[in-house]
Amino acid sequence: MIIIYISNYQHQKRLKVIRLRRPYFPENSIKKIQRNIGNAMRDGRLTLGENVSKFEKKFAKFNGSKFGCGVSSATAGLHIALLSLGIKQNDEVIIPSKTFISTANAAIYCNAKPIFCDVQEDTFQIDPNHVKKLITKKTKAIIPVHIAGNICDMKELVEISNQNNIPIVEDAAHAHGATYYGKKAGSFGRIGVFSFYPDKVMTSADGGMIVTNDSEIYNKTLEFRNVGRKHLGQYDYNVIGYNYRMNELQAILLNEQLKLLPSMLKRRREIAKMYDEQLNIKNLVRQKIQKFVKSSYYAYVLRLTKGDLERLRMKLSKKRIETSPMFTSVYKIKAYRNILGNTPACKVTEKLDSQTFTIPLHPGLTDNEINIVINEIKKNEK
Questions:
Q1: Distance between CA atoms of 351 and 312, rounded to whole angstroms?
Q2: In terms of domains, do 211 and 118 share one?
Q3: Is 58 exposed, middle or buried (0-12, 13-18, 19+ CB in 10 A)?
Q4: Is the model's pTM score more than 0.85?
Q5: What is residue 276's three-state secondary structure?
Q6: Does residue 39 form part of some domain?
Q7: Cα–Cα distance between 198 and 207 in angstroms, integer?
Q8: How many other CB atoms are there within 10 angstroms of residue 169's CB atom?
Q9: Mean pLDDT rounded to a whole number for the chain
Q10: What's the average model confidence in pLDDT over 217-237?
Q11: For residue 59, what is the enclosing H or E element?
Q12: Residues 117, 136 share a domain
């Protein structure tokens, strides 16, 4: 499998590589960040200070949630979310088979068992009909993943959740600002988790956010992220927690990124529209996004239904255009084969594994670069 990443930045700059994804920090934003980092360093409180608190409140409000808990990564956030729900050994957690490994890892960290659910062939999202078939007495949580910023069928999933009294934890790592019937991703389940990894819709180099409307859950997240205590300087620990804190430097970046988020989303949607309108190519199908969903377009996912995908990606690579596969079946990864042994196949996921890929999409892309990508892909049609 070919993964196109030229890691040396100066080499990329010299070759004018069209990047798949990259963070967006305009110059005026960088200057504000530098000034605020200086203030934080002079203040001396570099973790769980006023910048973290400010960002938690602002992001929760933006997302339509009552509470926000900043953490070191989305992986940490998913782990804490399951811990806060009391997930333990022998419990089962239903997750999509097509996702990043962290979604499954969160269940493993709790000594629970991830149960892999197939996805829909057109949206690439967790299939609610398959979810229903997988529910047992051991099922204690469902984690839908909003792949590429496209929100799952939350109406159906919430109904399943309510009927079976099984909480939903939304993996919204890709879905900052995405909406479903006007409601934000991460606000449908008991808990929502976001990522601020370097290539995400908004970033702090790394980091994550847990959002919830449940005060009891919220108080648990505060303890689990801070080695079992709510506040620094407190030496009475209520639970065995983890060092999953968000620091002040991350929060400074994120407070600026949140201001930029509306314009970044606007640009992502403009780029996606250009691809939608011009990549009408036989055997090349884009991820289906329902009319009532407004995607964040973390990624633009294409499916080559006929032809040699690796050959296409190699051609684009030679033109210095980065592409990437869109995940692979988690249960086929060596680490999971070693832990779980043989797992029932998810046929749609396995079919998509060899057909789906992503092309460049980030706010820093120029129209000229977008047109180069479009034209090079069109050449493959001939």
A1: 18
A2: yes
A3: middle
A4: yes
A5: helix
A6: yes
A7: 9
A8: 28
A9: 94
A10: 91
A11: helix 50-63
A12: yes
Please tell me the distance from the alpha carbon of residue 124 to that of residue 144, in angstroms, as a whole number.
11
> Using CA atoms, how far apart are residues 97 and 91, in angstroms rounded to an integer?
18
Q: Per-residue pLDDT tens for 267-298?
A: 999 999 999 999 999 899 999 999 999 999 99
Among 256, 288, 317, give the residue marking a domain's end. Answer: 256
Contact (CB, 8 A) for 80 and 221: yes
Residue 381 has pLDDT above 80, yes or no: no
Strand partners, 208: 71, 195
Higher pLDDT, 113 or 1: 113
Could you tell me how many residues make up the chain?
382
For 54, 61, 270, 284, the CA distances from 73, given in Å and listed in that order, are: 18, 20, 29, 34
Calpha distance 175→298 (Å, rounded): 7
Q: Cα(138)–Cα(169) distance, rounded to whole angstroms?
A: 16
Q: Residue 249 domain-assigned?
A: yes
> In terms of residue numbers, what domain contains 61?
27-256
DSSP per-residue codes, 20-75: S------HHHHHHHHHHHHHHHHH---BSSHHHHHHHHHHHHHHT-SEEEEES-HH
**240: amino acid identity, one letter:** I
- 237 & 295 share domain: no
Q: Are 268 and 363 in contact (CB under 8 A)?
A: yes
Indicate the DSSP class of residue 361. -
Tell me, yes or no, whether 286 and 148 share the same domain: no
pLDDT digits (tens, 9 = 90+) for 124-169: 999 999 999 999 999 999 999 999 999 999 999 999 999 999 999 9
Closest CA to 106 of 228, 230, 224, 251: 224
* CATH number for 68: 3.40.640.10
Long-range contacts for 9-16 (Cβ within 8 Å, ≥24 apart)? 15/320, 16/320
Domain final position from 197, 232, 256: 256
Is residue 12's pLDDT more than 80?
Answer: no
C-alpha 302/C-alpha 187 separation (Å) is: 27
In degrees and rounded to multiples of 5, residue 335 shows phi and psi of -55, -40
Same domain, 61 and 91: yes
360: exposed, middle or buried (Cβ count in 10 Å: 0-12, 13-18, 19+): buried
Q: CA torsion sign, 79 to 126 to 204 to 197?
A: positive
Domain tally for the chain? Answer: 2
**170: three-class secondary structure by DSSP:** strand
